[in-house]
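In this section we walk through a basic example: taking a raw amino acid sequence and producing a predicted 3D structure, encoded as discrete structure tokens. The instruction is simple. Fold the sequence below.
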Amino acid sequence: MDEVEVVVAHGERATLRVGDVFLKVDADQARLDVEVEAMSLAPVTTPEVLWRKPPVLATAALPGTTLGRLGGPVTGSPTAWAAAGAALRELHDAPPPPWPGRAGRSIDAWAKELADECELLVTNGVLPADLVTRNRQVAEAALRPFPPAFTHGDLQIAHVFLDGDEVTGIIDWSEAGRGDALYDLATFVLGHEEHLGDLLAGYGTGVDLDVIHGWSSLRSLLAVRPLIEQGFDPFAPGCEVDALRSRM
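The resulting token sequence is shown next.
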């Protein structure tokens, strides 16, 4: 029998791998509905849906490997990073879904969550006040009107698979929807911004680097406390807190 590998697990959902099958367990039926619908609409390769029996969605594994993971080493040639960028451009240029995704929340919603979270981080002594203040200033660049795009919404580096220099597919679409394309780019290079130039070589023009940095700071500020509560370590080398420190 194949070994059961826990890919990720926390209070909201869990993903397991058994051989060549991924099993996503999610008590939120709406998220599974979004995932299946988004994969059917996306112009890029996505995992084959094998079966679905709520709260479980079974998909086939994608060939190839990822370019790395947050807090870990990265692999891949500049050409591979450019190939990932080209795939992301293809996604973002597609007609966006009718529903808002994680990257499509209103400016007011983001601003309120950011203000509340920054206060908690400082009040509870999770992060130094100067680190929070500086990154909140950087994050403001992301809070502006944007043209709606087809966004993945959780485009971590570990969610894009490549075989050599060719993208073989993108996984985990539960946060997908209409949103800001630069949120996806910031998420993909979080902790690995030294590869942003290679990614943009394939993605193309029309990218505001200040906005990418803004989304990186905003996403990191909002993630620190939830990650700690879920048993993860945002203070590990190369993770969210290091990304915040890089703005100082």
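Looking at the output, two observations stand out. The two ends are 50 Å apart (CA to CA). The chain has a mean pLDDT of 94. In the next section we compare this with other chains.
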